[in-house]
Amino acid sequence: MIRSFLALVGLFALLFVAGNIMFPLPVEKLNPAASTVVLDRNGQLLRAYQTPDDMWCIRVNGNEISPALKTAVLAYEDRSFYRHPGINPKAIFRAAIANWQAKKIVQGGSTITMQVARLMEPKERTIFGKAIEIFRALQLELHNSKDEILTYYFNLAPYGGNIVGIGAASRFYFGKNPDRLSYGEACLLAAIPNSPNRYRPDLNSAEAKRGRDKILRILLNDGKITPQQFAEAAAEPIPVKRFDLPFQAPHLADLLFRSYPHTERFESTIDPITQQLAETTLRSQLRPLIPEGITNGAVVVIDNTSKDVLALVGSCNFFDSLNSGQVNGAVAPRSPGSALKPFVYALGIDEGVISPRSLLYDVPVEYSGYRPVNFDETYHGAVTVEEALIRSLNVPAVNLSAKLGSDGVYTLLKDAGVTTFPKPQEYYGLSLILGGCGVNLLELTNLYSGLADGGDFRGYRLLKTTPEPPSRRLLSDGACFIVTDILTQLRRPELPAVWEATLHLPKVAWKTGTSYGKRDAWSIGYTPRYTVGVWVGNFSGQGHPRLVGAEVATPILFAIFDALESSGDGRWFVQPNSVARRQVCATSGLPVSPYCVATADEIYIPGVSPNRQCPMHEMIMVDKQTGKRLCSHCRSGHDYDEKIVVNWPVEIATWMERNGYAVDPIPEHFALCPQLASGSGPVIMSPSPNSEYVIRPEVELRYQKILLDASVSNKTKNIYWFMNRRLVYSGSPTERVFITPTPGNFTLVCTDDEGRSAEVKLTVRSQ
Q1: Considering the chain, what is the average pLDDT of its residues?
Q2: Could you tell me which residues come within 8 angstroms of residue 148 by beta carbon, excluding any fewer than 6 positions away?
Q3: How buried is 670 (Cβ within 10 angstroms: 0-12 exposed, 13-18 middle, 19+ buried)?
Q4: Are 733 and 767 in contact (CB under 8 A)?
């Protein structure tokens, strides 16, 4: 008898081994397509997507399931789950007798493992189907632990309608994660898979209550819960409708869903409180502007330490189809206006070209036909770097960008992670620094986070699972500190000039941008902790007179910062050791000479910042008899007075005189001096070098005259224009000279009254 039994067992084992080889466990069916879920940084659901077959199936791990639910399911479905090998012969025999006596199925003998096998491969409930189910159950036990099998059950079990798995069921019926279920909730969910339509609480609340109470009594009788716990659980209300799944950070969720189409679970870096703050602030600030025709905006908040994106708001209202609310404004390339200027100044500081008090020239200029103009279409002559950046002047920024050359701001931005420049540098030219390119808010905000990080640029993180981005040192900490110091001097538009002294308001370094045609308004700011970026505009590209960064984007920026930094420690950037302070000439911004009459304080980078002594203040000798200027070669034998004057750079002196700026009158050089004058000669402003001029036949020649314009030192009293060696003008350099064009190739020479000259080539042709 024993031998027969052992032989039967051996035969069964042999058949199982052979079957396991011939019909391996279809592991892929244990993990069918599940809903894609996007979680916040705390593991809470932001948004979920249906499976391709329109089911809700939010997969969970074993540690995400409430112990109460496990207890209820095991007590109701399979008490000996942790003791049997996948099948329970006693339970199967008992169910078979009960069903035979009732002439119908009144009791099931399936273990949880067998139910997983049936859920994995649904089949008709026949003897053959049951045999396959038993075979698969044994395979499951062979290849998986008990806890893994139990987790498979919770992810595959039906919970009514298009809800599959406990992850979706817990959220739809109770609005919570399955690890937070009470005993009453757990017992209701334990009952539903036994008869999903019968026990669905949103359709049959009375039946659902009976099913729940039945399992509660089992737990009470088994001593799993106390009478008090039973009473409390039985008194819990039955949900009569489904909860809505969370629908937060929808633009971020869509971005991840489309970017990684085969990923099931996204653990994002989004902080729900910061996200909610950004959304509500944007919505409230834009509400009065929408009737005027300014309909949308976007916000990004980045943690400067980790580069985690804490908030990403792509539009004012995701469901506003009229204004394209589903467009993600945080990643849509738009013209940044002046928002890139801080980077050209930081680069100029690092290259030793400028320091904060250096003079820049804000006068008309032309680069091969490109003529930059300021936002207000005016010029301001000589301005400091601080003034140019604070006032966001266009011409000085373009001049500085041109001086930095090919390895300038374009390369810096590309190396810092900007991906929206598909064309080579030549395509964008000098207009890039004024917004002649496309950037997106997410990357632009991260660029400013690099300034906050002292020039250490790293990629932003949208997912917690992303490794820490590698860093690139592209700017020095000294240059970043100096630029930050300048950007902190900008006045908050809603406060008076003394806003820094106002209590309880955070100190912020910030910059605005307004694109050409007033289509895009930007405001980006940072503190040691956070960088915040704001874009306001219309997704249609429609411009609006009020679409100016400081007017519509900056109030949103500071409303967010006021909330973010309300509980902060108020710390600010520490001045790095590479930065020091010095006294410079208040006029030239260079180290003082013996003749400088006023000084100013400046932070600078020793060994890098310009250190040439101020050349603008100089001592001249004026002949008492003739009033002429004497140099060392003609001074002998003359009675003269010493006088300190400001000799303005040749590039701006003429413009300043022409536009009424106070310029020191410097006497002419003594005509009988035996020595030729030194110093800078004329700078030809128009026409530009090697330019080509086309005469249009349909326009009268008197309306097509060519401007001859040169800038000279304020020492120069007269200039002379020659065209192919023929004198065409002599007189004051402040006069504007025009010539009537004729076809041909010409050499234009401008000479000052001390013999210094400059020339350009000009081609004129008929159309």
Answers
A1: 88
A2: 62
A3: buried
A4: no
Residue carrying the six token digits 């244990």:
30
Rg of the chain over Cα atoms, rounded to whole angstroms, equals 39
Tokens representing 20 are 């396991």
Cα(374)–Cα(547) distance, integer angstroms: 17
**Element at 400 (helix H, strand E):** helix 394-404
The 45-48 sheet, strands edge to edge: 45-48, 37-39, 265-267
Confidence (pLDDT) at 278: 98
CA 157 to chain CA mean position, Å = 41
Maximal C-alpha separation, the chain: 144
**Residue recorded with tokens 């902060």:** 568
Q: What is the β-pairing status of strands 719-723 and 706-711?
A: unpaired
Of the candidates 15, 60, 53, which has an alpha carbon nearest to the alpha carbon of residue 37? Answer: 60
Helices (H), 453-497: 477-488
The C-alpha angle 195, 198, 203, rounded to 5 degrees, equals 135
Phi, psi of 464 (to 5 degrees): -65, -25
What is the token pair recorded at 738? 């025009």
Sign of CA dihedral 336, 337, 342, 344: positive
Which domains does the chain show, CATH number per domain? 18-234 (1.10.3810.10), 249-334+440-472+492-577 (3.40.710.10), 335-437 (3.40.710.10), 579-611 (no CATH), 683-766 (2.60.40.10)
Q: Which two tokens stand for residue 452?
A: 């906050």
- Would you place residue 555 in the very low, low, confident or very high pLDDT band (cuts 50, 70, 90)? very high
Phi, psi of 171 (to 5 degrees): -75, -40
| CA–CA dist 690, 693 (Å, integer) | 10
Answer left, alpha or beta for residue 550, where phi above 0 means left and psi between -120 and 50 means alpha: alpha
Residue 8 has pLDDT above 50, yes or no: yes
What is the C-alpha to C-alpha distance for residues 131 and 539, in angstroms, rounded to an integer? 61
pLDDT digits (tens, 9 = 90+) for 496-530: 444 444 446 789 999 999 999 999 999 999 999 99
Over residues 174-224, the pLDDT tens digits come to 999 999 999 999 999 999 999 998 999 999 999 999 999 999 999 999 999
The enclosing H or E element of 256 equals: helix 250-259
Distance (Å, rounded) from C-alpha 523 to C-alpha 466? Answer: 28
CA angle 254, 511, 371 (to 5 degrees): 105
- pLDDT band, residue 106 (cuts 50/70/90): very low
pLDDT at 1: 59
Q: Which two tokens stand for residue 757?
A: 């000259």
Q: pLDDT by residue (tens digit) across 674-729? A: 555 566 778 888 888 877 888 888 777 777 888 888 888 777 788 888 888 888 88
> Which of these, 155, 122, 159, 163, lies nearest to 26 by C-alpha position?
122
pLDDT at 13: 56
| Both structure tokens of 200 | 């669905």
Length of the chain: 767
Per residue in 14-42, pLDDT (tens digit) is 555 555 566 677 778 888 889 999 999 99
Summarize pLDDT for 262-289 with one digit per residue, the tens: 899 999 999 999 999 999 999 999 999 9
Residue 98's pLDDT band (cuts 50, 70, 90)? low
Q: What contacts 24+ positions apart, CB below 8 Å, involve 468-472?
A: 468/306, 468/307, 469/307, 472/415, 472/416
Does the CA dihedral 329-335-338-343 come out positive or negative?
A: positive
> How many whole angstroms from its chain centre is CA 354?
28
> Is residue 132 pLDDT above 90, yes or no?
no
Burial class of 34 by CB neighbour count within 10 A (0 to 12, 13 to 18, 19+): buried
**Residue 99 has which token pair?**
């069903």
What distance in Å separates the CA atoms of residue 742 and residue 726, rounded to the nearest whole number? 14
Q: Are 277 and 502 in contact (CB under 8 A)?
A: no
